[in-house]
Amino acid sequence: MPEAKRAEIFSPFYFGFHEGSGLGLAIAHKIAEGHGGRLEIQDARHGPHGARFVLSLPGFHGGAAPSGEVEEIA
């Protein structure tokens, strides 16, 4: 994904596709931040096209998840 799009993708009403309201990623980003986490965009793992979104949230008991522990949902 081009760097120019990465800077705008979490903005409300950003349209990366022909369908949708442009609010989904903006809302998800705000929710993540509101819970002390983050939503990040990374390069796709396979091939030169696309993107991967990583959601990180602190643990349920007030602490962060152990280092290196990642649950990936495909």
Structure description:
- It contains two helices and two strands; from the N terminus they run ααββ.
- The protein is an alpha+beta fold.
- The protein has one domain.
- A hairpin with a 7-residue loop joins β1 and β2.
- The protein is globular, with a radius of gyration of 14 Å.
- It starts with a helix and ends in an 18-residue tail after the last strand.
- Give start-end ranges of low-pLDDT stretches: none
Shape: globular
Order of H and E elements: HHEE
Overall pLDDT level: 77
Over all CA atoms, what is the radius of gyration?
14 Å
Q: What can be said about the biggest beta sheet?
A: 2 strands, antiparallel
Helix content: 10-25%
**Total domain units:** 1
Termini Cα gap: 19 Å
How are the strands of the largest sheet arranged?
1-2
